[in-house]
UniProtKB/TrEMBL annotation:
It comes from Grimontia marina. This is Dipeptide transport system permease protein DppC. It is a multi-pass membrane protein. Residues 99-299 form the ABC transmembrane type-1 domain. InterPro entries: BP-dependent_transpt_permease (IPR050366), MetI-like (IPR000515), MetI-like_sf (IPR035906), OppC_N (IPR025966). Its main location: membrane. It is found in: Cell membrane. The gene is dppC_2. The lineage of its organism: Bacteria, Pseudomonadati, Pseudomonadota, Gammaproteobacteria, Vibrionales.
């Protein structure tokens, strides 16, 4: 009998042997950026365990501890490594919990953008004609407005319709919806362009001849071949969504004061920066800049890897 080799490599082994991982190992900037981003994610996930205190627990907050500087400065308190804010909350703890909220909003908004963009882009590119024209004109109209303008208008509508109390209670969900609605056209236009190229290929025509329904052809056959540019956009849009949330919170249209995100922490501290309490704004601002920077660096690296004309390894 002939011995047949049944040692099929696992998906993890295939990934370790892939060109993607090979290029990743050779790019020190990508490795460093990924390590920093992973550190932020782990810090956000395990915030309740590693934070010195719970900034949402009013019983643990003493207003007499407000505006204390970092512990290495004069009049600093050893209990508060990075100082305290205007309510007496530990800055390090609020950053960890705020990082969690910012990442949740950023990832959730991108998931909603991706869902809307995929459905609309696939439909426009595959069906064409009037459906394509109608959907793309909607995208063009939305793109004629800035993201912040759309987000501010939608946020104001939500607050006027449901009230400030309802908005504050469901602020995370509201911001995910607001930012998601504001940014979907970029996905839709990118996917539409890829679908227009893919739907003329033989495998799509074969699927149509076999009698497959349009949704199956769109999602199971065409979509997997359009994911490379979408992955790059997703990476960059996570950073944009986090920045949009920070801007809305800074303008008072984002997270409430009692549930601070990085943006609302910066907004809170900005009032006190000229009185000398610079740490309330500085440390959340540094974390926000670092988070957005490493995500953008990863996005740039992914763009180059998926474009062989640019990437040289």
């Amino acid at each position: 009998m002939t011995n047949v080799n049944t040692n099929v490599p696992s998906r993890w082994q295939q990934f370790l042997e892939s060109d993607f991982f090979y290029f990743f190992k050779r790019d020190k900037v990508a490795m460093f950026s990924f390590a920093v981003f992973l550190s932020f994610v782990l810090a956000a996930v395990f915030a309740p365990f590693i934070a010195p205190s719970d900034p949402y627990d009013l019983a643990s907050i003493d207003i007499m501890d407000s505006e204390l500087p970092p512990n290495w400065l004069e009049s600093g308190d050893e209990r508060f490594l990075l100082g305290t804010d205007n309510q007496g909350r530990d800055i390090l703890s609020t950053i960890l919990y705020g990082l969690r909220i910012s990442l949740m909003i950023g990832l959730g908004a991108v998931a909603l953008q991706l869902l809307l963009g995929i459905v609309i882009g696939l439909s426009a590119g595959y069906f064409g004609g009037r459906i394509d024209s109608f959907l793309m004109r909607i995208a063009d109209v939305q793109l004629s407005f800035s993201t912040m303008m759309v987000a501010i208008i939608v946020s104001a509508i939500f607050k006027a319709s449901f009230g400030n109390d309802f908005y504050s209670e469901y602020a995370i969900l509201m911001l995910v919806v607001i930012i998601g609605i504001a940014e979907w056209p970029q996905y839709a236009r990118t996917i539409r362009a890829s679908v227009l190229a893919e739907k003329k290929k033989e495998y799509v025509e074969a699927a149509q001849v076999m009698g497959f329904k349009a949704p199956r052809i769109m999602f199971r056959h065409i979509l997997p071949n359009c994911l490379s540019p979408i992955l790059v956009i997703c990476t960059v849009q996570v950073a944009n969504a986090i920045m949009s949330e920070a801007a809305l919170s800074f303008l008072g249209l984002g997270m409430p004061v009692d549930k601070p995100s990085l943006g609302s922490l910066i907004s809170i501290g900005f009032t006190y920066i000229f009185s000398g309490a610079w740490w309330i704004t500085a440390f959340p601002g540094i974390v926000l800049v670092a988070l957005v920077l490493v995500i953008n660096l990863l996005g740039d690296w992914l763009r180059d890897v998926f474009n062989p004309k640019i990437y040289k390894g």
